[in-house]
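example protein:
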Amino acid sequence: MSSTDAWALHRPGGRDVAIMAVAVVGVSLSGPMTALVAAPALAIAFWRNAAGAAALLPVLLTRERAATRGLRWRDLLSSVVGGLFLAGHFAAWLPSLSMTTVAASIALVTTTPIWTALAARLSGVRLPAQVWWGLVLAVGGVALIAGVDVTVSWTALAGDGLALLGAIAAAGYVLAGAKARQTLSTSAYAVVCYSTCAVVVAVAALAVGVPLTGFSARDWWLIAGITVVAQLLGHTLFNLVLSTVGPTVVGLAILLEVPGALLVALVLLQQLPPLLALPGMALVVVGVALVVRASRPPTVVEPLT
């Protein structure tokens, strides 16, 4: 099946909406929980991916074992590419948080659905104008929630560039996943993708001297919780619907993590939301609604030259 078919924009059904709702809750819990962990960010990224792959391996070897018969290396290639992009996302975005403002980093890294939509358009999928308006409104809403404060310096500029690179890498991750899920089960894709990401992140952590062990019991429990809510209920459920709704809808749904995390932080951490949070949330919801409403079986055109 071609990338045009895999990257098409489809209106989610009731089952897809329910699955994505649970996934949004999962990833929304990730940020506030990660803020409570003293362990380095790269260590968290390694363990959530390694543990996520280990948790799904029994499913792959038992319930979905039949789906692995006859698989060839090229069938797994998109999964490996997805894992490399996911590792690139972590490697680019995490350093940006300390180089530019957190607000600017979040606003830039959440441009992921715009990049997936551009890739779909370049592959030959014609997207309605309403989809582009929805994407702009949703990303603009995230920027309002983050309360972007522009900082002019070479370091901040480099951090902004890394955050943008993290968004592009995240788009590559969901695009590769959409292609892989055309031929692979969710567990087969996730095990290969998460394992690849864990290996690359581990090598990067060792290269820069970031420890992967030696944390407190509290940190280990929090990392286990992050693995369950963010990796298994979040990423894996999003990967489950990639083959039915397409990467742009999934990327847009992930944007709901920002207002979701804000609400979770309000309840768990007693952190008051910024002044522009409510209008920002409204823009995100309206933007998502516009894209979903405009979603329909795509019209394929010749790729742009």
Confidence is low (pLDDT under 50) at residues 297-305.
